[in-house]
């Protein structure tokens, strides 16, 4: 199984960014755990982070026919990016949406996800573990 993992805007600042909400681990720490878990499950993984909507859209296009699953934390784009939603639909990857925080217990504008209804499922509020659980799911589902 080939898995594309995408981290959206501001997630490069993890560790320093509102740690009471997003935790103390850096993106590098989380990516190392993702790579470890992927190796354990014999999943081929590519990890990509960008602060730019277009770069995320283009990364998705690159993976048309190249990956089986998408694990994505679209960050703020979750709440309004129709371009990312359309790109996910266009490339047809089975998608798991991940959020570190519980987007349903925060500001109202975070409760809406334009990705959730086209995803296999959404994991939120469990911190970095959400990414690892998504990989556990993919291993077990396939
Ligand atoms: C987030 C939640 C979003 O609302 C926010 O804009 C983020 C991170 C999360 O992982 O909890 O940047 O996706």
Description:
It is a single chain. By secondary structure, the protein is an alpha/beta fold. It has one domain (2-141): Rossmann fold (3-Layer(aba) Sandwich). It is 36% helix and 19% strand. The protein is built from five helices and five strands; from the N terminus they run E-H-H-E-H-E-H-E-E-H. The protein has helices at residues 19-22, 27-40, 53-62, 82-91, 129-141; strands at 2-7, 44-49, 69-73, 94-99, 121-124. A five-stranded parallel β-sheet has the order 2-1-3-4-5, with helices on one face. Helix 4 links the parallel strand 3 and strand 4 (94-99). Helix 2 (27-40) packs parallel to helix 5 (129-141) and helix 3 packs parallel to helix 4. The longest helix has 14 residues, at 27-40. The protein starts with a strand and ends with a helix. 35% of the residues are buried. The model has no long low-confidence stretch (mean pLDDT 97). The structure holds 1,3,4-trihydroxy-5-OXO-cyclohexanecarboxylic acid. 1,3,4-trihydroxy-5-OXO-cyclohexanecarboxylic acid (DQA) binds next to loops.
Summarize the structure.
By secondary structure, the protein is of the alpha/beta class. The protein is built from 5 helices and 5 strands, in the order E-H-H-E-H-E-H-E-E-H.
List its salient traits.
five-stranded parallel β-sheet; Rossmann fold; 19% strand; binds 1,3,4-trihydroxy-5-OXO-cyclohexanecarboxylic acid; alpha/beta; 142 residues; 5 strands
């Amino acid at each position: 199984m080939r898995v594309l993992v995408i981290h959206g805007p501001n997630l490069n600042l993890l560790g320093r960014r509102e740690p009471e909400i997003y935790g103390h681990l850096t993106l590098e720490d989380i990516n190392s755990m993702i790579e470890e878990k992927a190796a354990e499950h014999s999943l081929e993984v590519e990890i990509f982070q960008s602060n730019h909507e277009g770069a995320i859209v283009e990364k998705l296009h690159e993976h048309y026919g190249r990956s089986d699953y998408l694990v994505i934390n679209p960050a703020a784009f979750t709440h309004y990016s129709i371009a990312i939603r359309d790109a996910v639909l266009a490339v047809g990857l089975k998608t798991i949406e991940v959020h570190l925080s519980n987007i349903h217990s925060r500001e109202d504008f975070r409760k809406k996800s334009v990705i959730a209804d086209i995803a296999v499922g959404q994991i939120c509020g469990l911190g970095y573990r959400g990414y690892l659980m998504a990989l556990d799911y993919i291993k077990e589902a396939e």
